[in-house]
User: Fold this.
Amino acid sequence: MKRRIFLKGSLAAGTLAVAAGAGMLTPKSVLAAAWPKAAFESETEADALNAFFGTSDAEQSDQVSIKAPLQAENGAVVPIKVMTSLTGVEGIAICAIKNPRPYTTSLRVSAGGGGLYSTRIKMGQTSPVHCYVKAGGKLYMASQEIKVTVGGCGG
Amino acid sequence: MASTKMKIKKSKSGGYEVMVLAKHPMETGLRKDKKTGNKIPEHFIENMEFSVNGEVVAQANLGTGVSKNPLIGVGIPNAKSGDTVTVSWVDNKGESDSAEKVVK
Assistant:
């Protein structure tokens, strides 16, 4: 009898340890993902979104806001800040539509991360900039047109 | 050559915001060397990882479309005073750098 109880106990402890181990490993394996080469090399926005988020169906949302200049004097340095009040943010991506490769940059967010991402991007010409936020399995977007007087994509 | 600076400030929406300035050329691979006429090869940061107390909270993927000397800001809503924030990046040539700071 005693032996049985001991066995049961040790089995339960074993499963717990495995569960804890798996729990510890999941967020890391998600975040340690490699650089999303396919998304960066896509020449269309939809391809890039499919490659990164697994979907290109986005819904316009007021809860995604962009802070960026209406007119950028220098296309080589365009500051962009994406903020969202959505909860459960999984990823944020920025696309400058008329760039040779629209997919500019993205952020993968894990449980402890927040809905804020700011960066400075290069823009070849005046173009709308689309910002995507994936939260709770759905994709939301906001866009803003940025005028560029001097392009900054090399050449 | 490589240098990475980090700043942590209080965010308006609560929590903290990490700002990272990495010194990096971020070459697109499209630019030409004026003297030789050869294209300058691509050289850019691929991944930048943000962690709080050793746990990764966010990973930024950068590409050639990000400006030279990238300034990246990321929100860390759950960080508290005394937490250690670490940032590390790797570029497409395998070079890397990191910075660490304690939240005030």
Observations:
- Strands of chain A lie at 58-60, 64-67, 71-72, 78-84, 89-96, 103-109, 116-121, 127-135, 138-148.
- Helices of chain A lie at 2-31, 37-41, 45-53.
- The domain at 34-148 of chain A is CATH 2.60.40.2470 (Immunoglobulin-like).
- Chain A has three helices and nine strands.
